[in-house]
């Protein structure tokens, strides 16, 4: 589906047929280009970041970016059947060495080590619990 989506929106862009979403609201789905590879992906509006900027999450990968409103486009029905593929999760029973009673703070070094172990790698995960009030 990802290749088809990218090709579809690339063709619209080449033909000057892309029309930005109008009257957008938090939670709206659309498409945008990811800045790292300049490819089209499904996205969801998280927040408005000022007069003409929005924060979106790419729903199939979990990346977050700030975009200009006119860089967020309607999601065609062809690409709505597949549920979002990114799932927010956390490590079970993993805690930083030092934490105060009000917040958990991981060191930048620890965060980087974790990223090095999982980003762009195939990892096996097991769900052990779902927090109440979260989507599956």
Automatic annotation (TrEMBL):
PROSITE patterns: TUDOR (PS50304)
Pfam assignment, any one: TUDOR
Domain Tudor: residue ranges: 23-82
Domain of life: Eukaryota
Classification via InterPro entries: SNase_OB-fold_sf (IPR035437), Tudor (IPR002999), Tudor_domain_containing (IPR050621)
Protein name: Tudor domain-containing protein
Organism encoding this protein: Rotaria magnacalcarata
Gene3D superfamilies, per the entry: 2.30.30.140, 2.40.50.90
């Amino acid at each position: 589906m990802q290749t088809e989506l990218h090709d579809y929106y690339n063709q619209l862009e080449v033909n000057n047929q892309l029309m930005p979403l109008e009257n957008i609201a938090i939670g709206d789905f659309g498409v945008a280009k990811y800045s790292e590879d300049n490819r089209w992906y499904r996205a969801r509006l998280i927040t408005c970041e000022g007069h003409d900027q929005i924060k979106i999450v790419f729903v199939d990968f979990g990346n977050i970016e700030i975009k200009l409103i006119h860089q967020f486009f309607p999601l065609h029905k062809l690409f709505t059947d597949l549920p979002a593929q990114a799932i927010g999760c956390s490590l079970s029973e993993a805690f930083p060495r030092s934490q105060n009673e009000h917040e958990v703070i991981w060191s930048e070094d620890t965060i980087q080590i974790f990223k090095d172990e999982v980003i762009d790698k195939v990892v096996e995960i097991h769900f052990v619990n779902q927090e109440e009030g979260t989507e599956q």
